[in-house]
Write a structure and sequence with these properties.
single chain; 32% strand; eight-stranded antiparallel beta sheet; mainly beta
Amino acid sequence: MSRVLVIFIVLVSVSAVSAAKKGAYDAASTNYKVLSPLGSGQERVLCLARGSCNQKILTCPKECPERKPQMNKKEKACFIDCSSKCEVTCKWRIANCNGYGSLCYDPRFVGGDGVMFYFHGNKNGNFAIVSDENLQINAHFIGTRPAGRTRDFTWVQAFSVMFDTHNLVIAAKKVSSWDDSVDSLVVRWNGEEVEVPTGGEAEWRINLEEREVVVERTDERNNVRVTVSGIVQMDIKVRPIGKEEDRVHNYQLPEDDVFAHLETQFKFFSLSDLVEGVLGKTYRPGYVSPVKIGVPMPMMGGEDKYQTPSLFSPLCNVCRFQGKPGPGVAKY
């Protein structure tokens, strides 16, 4: 056997062993072990991800000493990145409705291209927000149409996140009156409701063969960060339509429903160049938005292209999801 052939076989064998040892989310930025904090309260971690940051200790700065501060609305959190960046930064853990990948209000989007637009859909409709080979995010719209109007006022009440063979649902409960001290958030994993703790790490997580899924509270109630490793991160807040907001916009909401809905900001990690969806397509390379720039409410059409039969269906006229959606629930 020639020396070249032997070297080739060795290299292939090493690659195979390396691949076998490679964890599904081993290279994720959050692959670390939490160490005891410094006397100043600054949290520390030991990085476990492969690469140059492996076995390095990263310490949160004094400006944001904690990964999960209790006063989340007033204090930035320490974000630890054990990937090749090997760094710590201070960041807010709440949705920025003016930031890239946001979906808020009477659905107003800011696309991956930075262009703001509205997509109204229709009340009780379900639409593909993102559709790619291994990711489908559908949104369920709630709404109302006062007498004399030609379209519905709409808001996003629930998301169904489909990936691999799994389904994660984040939804706002229907409530007749709003109380800030009451949690109005529902989380379901593969059709079963799960409880996100309020104490300790204040998170629910599951380690799958393919990846890790984490739902962590970013405030005591009605705020969470959802992370599906290697695929998507979502900062979500549940909020109602207040009486003053109802009056100013003339929504004419019924007395027994505050139309609790979701304000969300997405961050994607592995979209393809052919990604589809109301929001997804704005992340395509070279995408040029068709909306009219400079008008007060630039409108994005396409309801017929993105409407799905249900919150849990990956089917629409342009949908691309290739996985098998996990079990859902009856209705929201």
